[in-house]
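User: Predict the structure for this protein chain, please.
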Amino acid sequence: MVFKQLLRVACVASLSVLAIAVVSAFPLFEEMALTANRLAHHPTNLPSQAHALLAWVQVYKMELTFGMFLTLGVLTFALFILDREFRAHLQYKLSTSIDQRRFMMTDPALLQKIRLSRIGFMIALVAIFILITVTYQSYRNQLIVQFFALGVFLFNISGTYFFGSLKRAGQMERLVNRLNLYHQNKDEAQEKLVQADKRLQRQTASLAYLASHLNKQTSSQLFYQALIKQSAETLSVARVSVWMYSADKQQLVCEALYELKTQAYTQGQVLVANDFPHYFDALKQARVVVADDVYQHSATQDFVVDYFPSQQIGALLDATIWHDDEMIGVICHEHVGPAREWTLDEQNYAGSLADLARLTVELHRRQKVETDLVEHQENFEDMLKTRTASIESNAKLFRFLVERAPVTILYMNAANEIIEMNPEAERITGYSRDYAIGRTYQSLFVPEGMTGEHEALSSDVFFGNKIQGQEMLIRRADGSTTELSISRSMELDAEGNPVIISIGQDISQQKALEASLIKAREAAESADRIKSMFVASMSHELRTPLNSIIGFLGVVLQGMSGELNVKQKDQLGRAYASSKHLLSLISDVIDISKIEAGFLETHQMTFDIKEVMHDVSHAVQHLVIERKLNLQIECPEGITLDSDRKRLYQVVLNVVSNALKYTEKGHVSVKVIPLPEQLEIVVADTGIGIDEAGLAKLFKPFERIDSRLKIKTLGTGLGLYLTHKILTLLLGGSITVNSKVEQGSTFTMRLPYQMPEVEAGKLVNILEGQ
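Assistant: Here is the predicted structure, written as structure tokens:
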């Protein structure tokens, strides 16, 4: 207390000296305040103010220096007092009489005082050093400066000493705190060991009691009840239960549940996996599910809404029961009250209970198996006799089937020697059974010049490969040959010896029939080509006079043969339109007939696709104007094809014309899209669309889609069929369509930049509707 009073007196004295120095400088501060605004507008006045401040420091240098020394003295004395107080606090901690419950790790107030004293000492030391450095030249007697320097040196040494002393005291305090924490942990650990030992004794006694009751005479239900009662009393748990999986693993059924408070047993509760997915998944992944706080554990989130609050459950410990690597049940411990930390020995005890439950399951299952074995052993001899009779009957039936089978069946050993053969094999080959048995397959059935093929077949079978439907020529007893479809494989007989089974079917008649069918097909195809050529020729002969009719009708309609009245123009106009339609039909028939006959010529050339699009646009312009539609064509510049320009123009014109005919309002768009290896042409419209039934017959000849525009729109049903054939057979391309009723259709055509050499294939004759 005396030191603290002296410290307060020293503080007052140092503050008084500083106050006298500040009051003496008041005129200077007043002048600086009055000229503050002038300094902002006249920066040249700053040096004069600085000189004034330095002059003031020079005048009061002794007072300022003594004030600083007095402040350093006060702060040094404060460090001395704090060092003594810190060490007294440390000695108190080291005393044996201290109460561990009131042990304070650190004193925040004391540490704050030490920190502030250190900062103040450093500031004062730096300030007096700067003051002496600025004013030492103004002293007449330099001994005073040396005296001041010595004082600074001494205060520096004393400050360094107290700083080091406080630092060492702080390090000592940290060591004392660690030592005290170690003793506390040691006491807690000893207490936990004592408690754990007591728990282990109770758990060991409980397990020994349960093991003594594990026998065949004790039913599973009674053992489960004894198990959960012992567990509840040993672990002091309010509720313990045993649950077993249903056969489909989708439910847990409660076999027994014990409540410690009421000492009552219940059973029959059911948990469904779909209602508690997180809980069931957790059971499959761990032997013991430990939930110290059921409201925080992920596995128990399915129960936090209703079950846990209603039962006031705070912690859960579940041990799963496994048998043959399969989980069959779980033992559940439910702690009523706040959260509870389950110790490791309690978790091991729960796992041991699960092992006992598994043992009782195994015991009763084994007992059931033994009982069933005794019951079945009595009937085993009767079953054996019945089975033997059945085998003999099946053997007779199998022999009957082999003898009556309409295919050849040979049994051979690994050396390809005949062991057995059926009557059909005797009939086909001409060899008797007695003659063939013992002879090799090669010596009997392999014709001259075919030894290699038969040896390769035998080698494949010998190495385990199964031969299915291999057509081979065999030699008959009379020297002739016949063709069989052979299936052969190697099996093991009852004694483990390899046996080759070869089954053959006579296909000589089938081959003869196939040859006759091939000749008939070739004759039919030849006749079909001749007919197609005839149709093409006749169509050409019809087109010649029809062109003359169309030409004369055009001359008459133009009035070159005289004026026509309205009725005559209408009738002649209809005749002219019908003639044009008939000419289009005949042209399509000619093209299709030439394709079918293989005589349609192609003219390959290099051309710009944009010119083709321009020609198509010009050709359908009358339809665009007539139907008041918008035709949009997007085609990039510089795309060239090496193909048949005329046929490509015909294809695109057919598709665009159809789109315009079946679009009542809106637009038709044509987009040319260059792909890496193909050119894509997409024709999209906003027309009436095509249903599923229409799409199925879209590219068939003489088929027109049923729609409300069918009567208004002329057509033969050959346009898209011809388009498809030209694209696929001549230009090497393809055409697909996507459509929605009343929304429109999109036709996508793709063809290569270089037309391939494609020959017209054998097509179906459209005139016969096949």
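Confidence is low (pLDDT under 50) at residues 1-46, 760-770.
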